[in-house]
Task: structure prediction
Amino acid sequence: MVIDPMPIRLKDGREAVLRCPTAEDAQAFLENYRVCVGETPYLNLTPEEAAAITPEDERGFIEGHGASPDRLLLSCFVDGTLAGSCDLEFRADHKTRHRGGVGIAVQRRFWGLGIGAAMFRAMIGAARAREGLTQLELHVFEGNARARALYEKMGFRVRAVLPDAVRLADGTLLDEYLMILKL
Result:
């Protein structure tokens, strides 16, 4: 799924653009994800796992989202720099096609500028336009208070807890929270 680019005004007054990445963005998209993974323990991959992803893998990931009616990948560009991205996946099977999943990552230097909220508004808008979709879901790890506050601001609520679902490199176990937004 591809949507038209959307200009947004950041809290610091700069203009940014939300748009679907293209195959030409693969290297920047990969570098952005590697930066994000290195800045926080709250994303699914470790820095070592992110380092194993190739530009070709990333190009395929981007092209797959663009070609699929069930997936939307959005990126935020600030002054030509990829600042963050999010994705939305609609379930296609009959019993769960009323559900969609959301993921997001923003580089730390761009936190607090309204990028996450803008990406969520775009994703929620796309979800509401999808016939039959009644809820969006995401997962957040224990301790990720900043992200959880954003998700709650956007209307998501904790609906389930998976105890000790994530093991960090130092052995620390974290709960994982399932958050849902009813549309």
Residues 57 and 102 are 20 Å apart (CA to CA).
